[in-house]
Task: inverse folding
């Protein structure tokens, strides 16, 4: 099958990209790395009137520290961030990025594109929720910033409107006394996760668990003070996806309970300065 016909534009500025989306009257689609959008077009699951390619917006091609955050512009590829020296300041990025598909895919797919796509089993939306990242959205009324908790509305549904571009994501830098954990299970290397978890803990402070692949969006809970038994029970209850041929709901429940116990322990150990 081939994509339905569409107009293609490649604006040079963010303002022009927004103007193109406004001109498309809600029928436009942003094209970033194309790793999800191109198959969607080819299968005619979407039929935009205009594809707005943002690859020439050099103003969004940056990774930089701003205060207590690592800010990643919309042009940054997943593989670029994986190899970027500043990524070490957000340890969960280092832990999770290699799990996204295959290297070739990460060489094209963008960090913001994955967050904008909001696949319930994707790694970067889960990281954004676990760290309570902020998302900078540009639209016809200027820029606004929303938290990850406000951003993800459901499976492939976000706070990005049809005339908006996700301009950047702001991940908080790790603070002294914080530790992290990340794990997922997929049937084959490079597949989307059946289920996964991202965790963070602060020495003597809060512990947070985000599970993904278990619901229509990443699910985050404060698990401070919970022992393994309580944690496993809580994690099991986060799973509300129906089973599929790759894994039943019960299998996913057992999976996410085991991963949660292990990765919360890892984050707590790291927060206390112990081995990862
Ligand atoms: C075989 C295969 C395996 C994969 N495995 C995984 C995996 O294990 N984990 C994982 O997380 N992903 C996986 N992916 C998806 C991949 O990571 C994509 O790169 C990612 O989901 C989308 O990023 P992109 O830059 O390619 O966005 P695109 O494909 O260009 O866009 C995706 C969607 O987001 C919108 N969009 C993109 N950027 C913006 C923006 N800046 N502002 C507003 N809207 C925007 C587009 O309009 C479109 O609707 C896989 C893909 C394939 C083909």
Result:
């Amino acid at each position: 099958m081939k994509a339905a016909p569409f107009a293609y534009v490649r604006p040079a500025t963010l303002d022009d990209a927004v103007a193109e989306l406004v001109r498309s009257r809600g029928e436009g689609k942003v094209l970033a790395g194309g790793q999800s959008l191109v198959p969607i077009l080819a299968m005619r699951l979407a039929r935009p009137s205009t594809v707005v390619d943002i690859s020439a917006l050099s103003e969004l091609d940056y990774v930089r520290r701003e205060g207590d955050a690592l800010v990643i512009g919309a042009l940054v590829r997943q593989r670029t961030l994986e190899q970027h020296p500043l990524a070490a300041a957000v340890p969960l990025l280092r832990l999770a990025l290699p799990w996204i598909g295959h290297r070739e895919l990460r060489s094209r797919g963008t960090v913001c594109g994955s967050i904008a796509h909001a696949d319930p089993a994707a790694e970067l939306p889960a990281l954004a929720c676990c760290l309570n990242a902020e998302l900078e959205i540009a639209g016809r009324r200027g820029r606004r910033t929303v938290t990850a908790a406000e951003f993800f509305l459901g499976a492939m549904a976000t706070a990005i409107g049809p005339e908006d571009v996700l301009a950047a994501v702001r991940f908080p830098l790790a603070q002294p006394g914080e530790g992290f954990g990340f794990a997922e299970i997929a049937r084959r290397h490079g597949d989307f996760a059946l289920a996964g978890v991202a965790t963070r803990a602060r020495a003597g402070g809060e512990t947070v668990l985000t599970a993904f692949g278990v619901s229509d969006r990443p699910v985050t809970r404060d698990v401070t003070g919970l022992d393994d038994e309580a944690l496993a029970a809580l994690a099991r209850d986060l799973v509300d996806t129906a089973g599929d041929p790759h894994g039943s709901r019960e299998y996913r429940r057992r999976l996410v309970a085991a991963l949660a116990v292990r990765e919360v322990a890892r984050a707590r150990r790291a927060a206390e300065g112990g081995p990862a």
Notes: The pocket of flavin-adenine dinucleotide is lined by residues 29-37, 39, 54, 74, 100-101, 105, 109-110, 112-114, 116-117, 119, 122-124, 160, 165-166, 192 (CB under 6 Å).
